[in-house]
Amino acid sequence: MQLIEIINAIEKIAPLAAAASWDRSGLQVAARREDVAALAVCLDPTPSSVRNALELGAECILSHHPLLLTPVLPARLDDYHEVLRLLLVADVPLYAAHTSLDVNGRGPAGWLAQELELRNLAVLEPTSGQPFGNTLPLGFGLAGDLPSPLGFEAIVKILARHLDLSTAALCGPTPGTIRRLAYCTGSGSSLLPAARVAGAGLFITGDVKYHTALAAEISTLDVGHHSLEEEMMRRMCRLLRERLEPLEIFFVPSRSPLRPLVVS
Question: How many H-runs (helices) and E-runs (strands) does the chain carry?
Fold first, then answer.
């Protein structure tokens, strides 16, 4: 399959024009090859993920996070240099769908809303008044009503089917019965006020800062930056398999760089 066909399919799900102005979504590393036999999908373009993808036969790699937000010269023998070396030697292109993917709530970024069967969806921070192929505008974060009210423990059990909650942390008021909740993949704690305005009784995200937690007016569950987005990219992989058949597409799993502290 031609590389341009793969990029077009990605951008139908993750519209590049909708990416945040500070973001570096799009082609990260170019390659001379035009035809691709296998596509790897991962969360982070780390040396480990890129190396694993190449060993499995990838001829193109799609990551969520960009290689760098601010490009620099590869003047140091660091992870950035190693990823460039791996890709350039193998002549394999790297594409990142970052905020371009985050803003499409009807795509893989909306996986938790789909899993929880949320209704009456609202975008927490719209980036465009225009819908993207549906009635939901582009933007960051979603709020929605549960089919029926659930206790916090019941919601956690659902989350635990898909997420590693070993480093999760709770802040704000003690959760009661939840009728409407909101979430944002990645580092979305800045959307906490919008979640409250949207009527959510629980906000789920990652990377909640100390002062944000201190002032949280609704129950807030920090599941970690990695957790929600790893599952999002796993589902992006499945969606691309449907749209790019018969191209071989596989997911390269990763672990959060944060791990629980065990004291003996």
Answer: 9, 11
